[in-house]
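Quick note —
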Amino acid sequence: MGTKRHHKFSTALVAAIALCQAQVAQAQACLAPDDVTDAGIYAIPVVADGFRASCAPHLAADGFFATQGADFVAPYSAMQNERWPGTLRVFLALAAGGGADEQADALGELPGDALRPIVDAFFAQKIGEEIKPQDCSKIERAMELLAPLPPENLGGLLTFILDVTDVKEPAICETEKQ
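Predicted structure written out below.
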């Protein structure tokens, strides 16, 4: 009888440990909202470069990006260094979420500054893949509408949009209610 109880206890203990591990994995499977905001702010200059490369032939010479693009991007460029740590955490989480744990672990071992060109290339590639010539004027209009926002607000807005559109891979962590 004691062996039967021991077996039930062991089974319950293993189940509890598995549940805890699943909860820890779930907690790690989401991105901190502040990190996502950092990544949004960090990415704007890289995105702008990708936009310029893809869309320059499709934009008016007197349009927003040609006349005010540098002014729009400047505050984001000035904030890249301070926003780098959060951006790096997002990048590493995305790398780990892609199923390439060994590659993500290897990337995590590199000094953060050594990864910056890789992260920039990652963002630039993603933007290059997504921008279609017929969307260039729409993207330029969006930039013009967003330009008056301070970088913190634009980064927060991007995080909010990702959260409410229910992005799952990985999801945005719940914010604590105050």
